Amino acid sequence: MNKVVLMGRLTRDPEVRYSAGENALAIARYTLAVDRRFRRDGEATADFINCVSFGRTAEFAEKYFRQGLRIVVSGRIQTGSYTNREGQKVYTTEVVVEEQEFAESKSASDNYAASHPRAEAPAPSMPNPGAASTDGFMNIPDGIDVELPFN
Asked: Where is this region: Disordered (predicted)?
């Protein structure tokens, strides 16, 4: 069985390309920094895992994933090789993503991004109709009577 589950932070925004042809297929590539459980000399270490996703999974990554975001992916490990321009054989290992999801709330991700600034400007965010509280849930303004559909 070839199955892998990883949780880590995106090292950069996903790189998305579309295949040629009548039915263009989205292909997203990104790298996850996955923390190691044990520390070397008291310092945290991480493995940098290349991931690739196709179709709707790739489109989702393009739309919602940004550098620094913590995500969980599951898929399979795929190895390959190619010959580079210098004539040397290069071996590759990557995770072909089958499922991906957020591993933290939007507010936790924003807090991480604020404490780890990057050189380029952040992507524009969607307008937020209600201010979010510190627990990641939207605050309901006073004066609104909400009748819940269950008791």
From this structure: 102-138
Domain of 43, CATH number, reads 2.40.50.140
**pLDDT confidence of residue 125:** 39
Total domain count, the chain: 1
Nearest CA among 35, 59, 37 for reference residue 46: 35
- What residues make up the domain containing 27? 4-115
In a domain, 69, yes or no: yes
User: Does residue 127 belong to any structural domain of this protein?
Assistant: no
Q: What is the mean pLDDT of the chain?
A: 81
What's the pLDDT score for residue 109? 66
Residue 52 has pLDDT above 70, yes or no: yes
Tokens of 128: 């937020």
Q: Is residue 98 part of a domain?
A: yes
Q: Tokens for 3, please give them.
A: 């199955």
